[in-house]
Amino acid sequence: MSTWNKTKGCTPWAREWLTSTCVGTSASKDDVDVRVDALNSLDGDVELGNRKGKLITIFDTSVTFAWTGTKGEEKADGLLVCDEFSHEVHDEKRDYEFNVTQSGGPSAVKELVKTELVPQLIAQLAGFRNALIEKHAKDLGHDDATASGAATPTSTSSSAPAAAPPSSGATKSASTTASATTSTTKASASDVRVSLDLPMAQDDLWDLLTNPARIPMWTRSRAEFSTEPGSSFSLFNGNVTGTVVSAEAPKSLVQKWRVQQWPSGHLGVLKMSLSQSHDSSKLELVLSGAPVGEEETIEKGLRMYYLTSLQGLSGGVLG
């Protein structure tokens, strides 16, 4: 009971997290390149509290990053300022807002900062609360974040950096077979199927699903991902993990796939199929080998954390 009502100061850790997560974020378009160069300041306090056995995240801060960029031979620099980096924004399910300043150089550089760097930073900051809980929960008497009530996604999720997706038409395959690994857990004979029509090009949808720089736009956390067969991936702060079996851009992605809550060693197979129609692209997810009794939970998770999140970027019709 010594940690029943306790607060831990986490501001130094928050500075380290912001630096390691956000500094180095970059984007390029045509002859314009931009990059987050440094964390200039974190003003305010970050704490994790334990109140009668429930974890509470407490942070009311402002964050300033320095950015630099070039357009051809011309250079530019400025600041990215988030005046309200706080738990209230997270609790109200709002996006963090950034003010972008520029001290000199071509206006096209600042525009790329707004359109490409800011969305990446917003997605990265959205993972801060979960990272705070995961890092410090044990110090307040919790075995993991799921015991807190200040939870992370439960039945479908992922997170961290990786490589660019292959060009359209490229085909990769692994010698690994696409069979579910069940250990001692009985696998369901029924497939879980969900689908979504999105008003975007098939190539763009593929990029959203496989490019680690863009995956955070819908997972709201960093992503470790590569389309290289046999490579491991991690999404939603490690709640969804597995390995890539095969990738045929921009049509099909097959993964050995699991959520953290499944029995140890149990893997299903998730196949993502993409197809193009006149004015939209269809994404179909088919998961085979889920643990018996988990089919309904997995279907809800796939809809919520994959389809609904993607739908929020551009609209779309759930199947």
Automatic annotation (TrEMBL):
Q: Where is the composition biased (Low complexity)?
A: 146-190
Q: Which Gene3D superfamilies match?
A: 3.30.530.20, Activator of Hsp90 ATPase Aha1, N-terminal domain (3.15.10.20)
Which Gene Ontology MF annotations are present? Answer: ATPase activator activity; protein-folding chaperone binding
The chain positions of domain Activator of Hsp90 ATPase AHSA1-like N-terminal read: 7-138
Gene Ontology annotations of biological process type: protein folding
Entry GO terms, CC: cytosol
Database matches in SUPFAM superfamilies: Activator of Hsp90 ATPase, Aha1, Bet v1-like
- Which parts of this chain are annotated as the region Disordered? 143-190
Return any one Pfam family short name. Answer: Aha1_N
Give the source's domain of life in one word: Eukaryota
> Which family is it part of?
Belongs to the AHA1 family.
PANTHER family referenced in this protein's UniProt entry, alphabetically: HEAT SHOCK PROTEIN 90 HSP90 CO-CHAPERONE AHA-1, LD43819P
* Protein name from the UniProt record: Co-chaperone
* Gene name of this polypeptide: AHA1
